[in-house]
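Fill in residues.
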């Protein structure tokens, strides 16, 4: 008999859609994929080469649970390079993807009944990480009119006396919102005043456009930052992430990691040593520019045909657009769109309780001509209804 807490975990609805898209593709249909949240680029060659060398050299054993010291040092050095921040490498914990970091954090910080404040819309897995450890999700409703920027009034509204942790992301999934420095500072102060642990998910950091975005670590040593090699570094399948935690708590994460997964994949850790090299960073910056160009092509095209996007998203590779002018139920509409027009996008249901039916997410993880073709297909489909 499956335990109740497991039965309550909902699937990623987009996975159903992806399965259907693949089925249609297998039957010969041309499907434009804008539904999956990963870069279309493969991992940069210097990282692949480093991974192959590691395998050839037989680096196939466990590492320390906190990760390879060289990689922890390389991550710390990267903060010095990008933000002139001196972070002790001891505070860096290497994890199997940021998913494991988030999971570990919930185990480490949340007692049964504790409240964890999460934005709505937000990354779908977070609520399950909370409920799996017996925590209570305290949703913070964001507003499209404000570009989905989190503010202190919304925090006050969502707060309950059991609130223990606040988890936010910048740049965010699904909205692409980058928190302004000012907002971030206010949020750090608010959390401190309420004795709430602040976790900032920065896995899309590096993928931000027109705006500066710096790590929240610059604002306080008490907050926890989660990051990943998945998105900016195009390494989703290698399953590698990291977090930076307060120095006094590292030993607890060490123990938890030893017990939950032993260590992050060893060849991936060796491969990631090449992630911060000049050669790799040059490739990644070109890709960042490509994402920005795609956003600049897709956003006006979507607005032209009637999607609502109140504020241009400034980061990640997502546009969270209001689709209520096309259909009352975006879930059904996304399925119809896939079947009739061959365009796969993600319904809001994966990300939100408050705005689920009115929104869809576009991932601009395909090239510009395909993005424009997708918009044309959506437009024609709408006119034909
Ligand atoms: C906001 C956010 N956090 C965490 C993750 C997990 O990513 P990974 O485990 O690949 O690092 C994702 C994946 O899409 C995400 O969008």
């Amino acid at each position: 008999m499956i335990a109740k807490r497991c039965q309550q975990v909902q699937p990623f609805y987009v996975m159903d859609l992806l399965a259907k898209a693949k089925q249609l593709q297998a039957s010969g249909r041309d499907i434009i994929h804008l539904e999956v949240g990963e870069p279309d680029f493969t991992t940069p060659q210097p990282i692949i080469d480093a991974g192959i060398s590691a395998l050839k050299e037989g680096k196939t054993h466990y590492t320390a649970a906190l990760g390879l010291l060289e990689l922890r040092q390389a991550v710390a050095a990267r903060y010095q390079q990008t933000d002139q921040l001196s972070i002790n490498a001891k505070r860096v914990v290497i994890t199997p993807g940021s998913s494991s970091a988030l999971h570990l954090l919930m185990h480490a910080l949340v007692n049964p009944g504790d409240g964890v404040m999460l934005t709505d819309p937000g990354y779908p897995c977070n609520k399950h990480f909370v409920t799996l450890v017996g925590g209570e999700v305290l949703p913070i409703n964001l507003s499209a009119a404000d570009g989905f920027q989190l503010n202190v009034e919304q925090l006050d509204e969502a707060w309950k006396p059991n609130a223990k942790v606040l988890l936010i992301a910048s740049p965010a999934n699904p909205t692409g919102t980058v928190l302004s420095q000012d907002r971030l500072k206010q949020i750090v102060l608010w959390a401190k005043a309420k004795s709430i642990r602040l976790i900032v998910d920065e896995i899309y950091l590096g993928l931000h456009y027109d705006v500066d975005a710096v790590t929240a670590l610059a604002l306080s040593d008490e907050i926890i930052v989660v990051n990943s090699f998945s998105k900016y570094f195009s390494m989703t399948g290698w399953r590698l992430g990291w977090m930076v935690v307060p120095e006094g708590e590292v030993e607890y994460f060490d123990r938890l990691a030893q017990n939950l997964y032993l260590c992050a994949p060893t060849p991936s850790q060796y491969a990631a040593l090449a992630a911060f090299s000049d050669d790799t960073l040059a490739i990644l910056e070109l890709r960042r520019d490509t994402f920005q160009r795609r956003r600049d092509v897709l956003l006006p095209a979507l607005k032209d045909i009637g999607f609502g996007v109140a504020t241009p998203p400034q980061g990640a590779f997502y546009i969270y657009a209001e689709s209520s002018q096309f259909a009352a139920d975006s879930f059904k509409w996304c399925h119809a769109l896939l079947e009739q027009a061959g365009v796969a996008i993600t319904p809001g249901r994966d990300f939100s309780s408050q705005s689920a039916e009115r929104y869809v997410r576009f991932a601009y993880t395909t090239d510009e001509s395909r993005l424009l073709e997708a918009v044309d297909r959506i437009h024609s489909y709408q006119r034909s209804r």
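The domain at 45-276 is CATH 3.40.640.10 (Aspartate Aminotransferase; domain 2).
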